[in-house]
Structures are given as structure tokens and as C-alpha cells.
Amino acid sequence: MHPVRQYYDYVDRGDLSSLINLFAEEVIYHRPGYAPIVGRPALEEFYRQHRVIESGRHELTEVVEENDRVAVRGHFAGSLKDGRDVQVAFADFFRIDAEGLFVRRDTYFFTPAV
User: Fold this and answer.
1) Separation between Cα atoms, residue 31 and residue 92, nearest integer Å
2) Which stretches make up the SnoaL-like domain (predicted)?
């Protein structure tokens, strides 16, 4: 399975240890509403303590790969930690190093903002 598809499988199953191991030590993650998350320890802290999603499922509708970059488009449906249900379209952009680890991820959600 491609590492990007593995990522969504791990996050949906709540397998945070396996998920974190897909990322390089110096990873940079940009996500709306958060300062850049820099480094594997900060990424693990985000998933264990700050992520507002309790559980859910990602459905990937498109995965495009070129060289060291992968773009993903899909839908997420699940529950937030405050009990609300959520359904949202998203796009993720990954950059992968020579060892196959994610060195950068940028997430975008399709919600009214401007």
C-alpha cells in the first residue's frame, strides 16, 4: 500500500504510533487554524492532544503523484471531541523524502471562509 494511503488507514484506525512513523523527524505540517507543526514530537503531540477529531473515516476520491509530491482529494465524515458530527471535503499535499517519509504536509478544508 502506498504510504499516503497507509496514512489515512492509520489515522482512521487510531494507530498513532504507525502514523507518526510515516513522517520524517524534521516534518513540517501546515493545517488551517494552527501554527505550523514542526518536527515529529510536535506532530505526535498534535495527534494525541490537540486534534479536534475524535473518530471518523476518510474517503479518497483522487490521488495524484509526481516525483516526490502526492496530492490527495477526498471527504471526511466523523465526530469531533465536542460531540458534533462533521462532514467535510479536504485536499492534502505531501512531499516525500528519498527514504519514503513525509517531510511536509499541507491540509486544506472546503468550508466557507471568505
Assistant:
1) 10
2) 4-104
